[in-house]
Design brief:
The strands form 3 sheets. An 8-stranded parallel beta sheet has the order 6-7-8-9-10-11-12-13. It has a 4-stranded mixed beta sheet with strand order 3-2-1-4, with no helix packed on it. A 4-stranded antiparallel beta sheet has the order 5-14-15-16, with no helix packed on it. Helix 5 packs parallel to helix 6, helix 10 packs across helix 13 and helix 11 crosses helix 13. It is of the alpha/beta class. It has 13 helices and 16 strands. Helix content is about 35%, strand content about 20%. The structure holds zinc ion.
Length: about 400
């Protein structure tokens, strides 16, 4: 053994403490007691979870509030302002901001990330050139996957497709989409499926920003996933229309997603901030009810999306915070649903990204996070702090628990 985490509590086993033996970057043993001549880390009965999985973030356009207006707070302003700011990005600037945001993710226990990277004739590949070096530079702490996508449209924006293909050749892993900014949204979806199949890559689309429960885009993506036999390799983000769907339609959509193998990432911070701006009162919140979709068989994750830009002028990159925010706004109250909120930033998120060998099991990579609590539901409800993280067995994060200094 290289090290032993002593006295850990695993998700789903609240009454048993175990030792986790780590060797060669992997979990070598899990047992009530392991003894070996090696480093011993005292966990003190705290929760040890697999590292958090961020399925959807935008490192390249994070931290630009100092150069953008965010006054109307709606989607049109966000697209306009970021597009304007983007014209001034160079690779060094993107690199510095992306690095700052990435380090926050790591400090909050995240060990897998899919970041969406914009390419179009305006920014060219400069955003990608800024983010790409971070994949290797931070491999000690995080597996960073790049999803190349056309924020400013594809079919309406000549030259974008060629840049996307160049971005995927240069190190992109997944192909993205943004049909809501295209003059022909359905055409963009179909083109992205053709490209993904040709390249053999997974798809992750930004899908709709509407409150029209009859919007057909999600069903169209499900049809495409079946037609192309790409089930299990397709994720969609937002799908705010689902927040407006009555229960029966929601269940039908979830069943369709399950059949077609299309998973959903809900992005609570952005959807809460951008949606319902036209309402003077009782604003609709626009957050798709992920835990109810899970009950009906679809897979979902919760993720951060934008950080400190006009799409979302908030963000500390804590997935525990996202799970808590979602639980609060989506009326989650039962213990089982609270546990599902935790799964949506761990095992369910890993499944969405097709991460192999994920979870606290012998033989898996020792990608672990230690939380100052005992159970997943407590972590979500109480925003439990991350006290340590490990990537392939090596400690990457340490945070000391807060202390009270009583008088006398
Ligand atoms: Zn996004």
């Amino acid at each position: 053994m290289d090290s032993i985490l002593r006295g850990a509590r695993l998700p789903g086993q609240p009454h048993d403490l175990v030792d986790i033996g780590i060797a060669g970057g992997k979990i070598a043993a899990i047992a009530p007691r392991i003894d070996a001549e090696c480093e011993i880390v005292d966990i003190g009965g705290r929760l040890v979870s697999p590292g958090f999985v961020e399925t959807h973030i935008h490192l390249d356009k994070s931290c630009i509030l100092d150069r953008c207006r965010a006054e109307a707070g709606d989607l049109a302003e966000a697209i306009r302002e970021v597009s304007r700011a983007k014209a001034g990005f160079d690779a060094a600037d993107v690199y510095e901001r992306a690095k700052r945001t990435l380090e926050k993710c790591i400090l909050n226990g995240t060990t897998y990330i899919r970041t969406h990277v914009e390419v179009d004739p305006g920014i060219g590949l400069r955003g990608l050139e800024g983010v790409l070096p971070l994949v290797k530079e931070y491999a000690w702490a995080v597996d960073l996957e790049l999803c190349i996508f056309p924020q400013e449209g594809l079919l309406n924006n000549p030259g974008t497709e060629e840049l996307m293909l160049a971005g995927l050749r240069a190190g992109g892993h997944v192909i993205g989409a943004c049909p809501y900014t295209d003059t022909h949204p359905a055409g963009q979806v179909e083109r992205i499926f053709d490209l993904a199949r040709g390249l053999g890559v997974d798809i992750d689309m930004h899908l709709d920003f509407s409150l029209d429960a009859n919007d057909p885009q999600l069903l169209h993506v499900c049809d495409c996933a079946e037609k192309h036999r790409w089930g299990g390799r397709v994720a969609v983000g937002h799908v705010t229309t689902l927040s407006a769907a009555p229960a029966a339609e929601l269940a039908a959509a979830a069943a369709r997603m399950r059949e077609a193998g299309v998973a959903l990432t809900v992005l609570p911070a952005t959807d809460l901030y951008l949606m319902g701006r036209e309402s003077e009162a009782r604003a609709p919140r626009g957050v798709a009810p992920a835990h109810r979709l899970l009950q009906a068989g679809a897979n979902c994750s919760l993720a951060t999306n934008n950080v400190l830009n006009p799409f979302t002028p908030f963000g500390d990159c804590s997935l525990i915070r996202m799970a808590n925010l979602y639980a609060n706004v989506a009326h989650v109250g039962t213990r089982d649903d609270m546990i599902e909120c935790f799964r949506m930033i761990t095992s369910r998120a890993a499944a969405l990204m097709n991460v192999r060998g994920y979870g606290v099991e012998v033989g898996h990579a020792a990608d672990l996070v230690v939380l100052d609590c005992h159970t997943p539901e407590q972590a979500v409800a109480e925003l439990a702090p991350v006290l340590a993280a490990f990537k392939r067995g090596r400690r990457t994060v340490t945070r000391r628990p807060a202390e009270l200094h009583r008088p006398g």
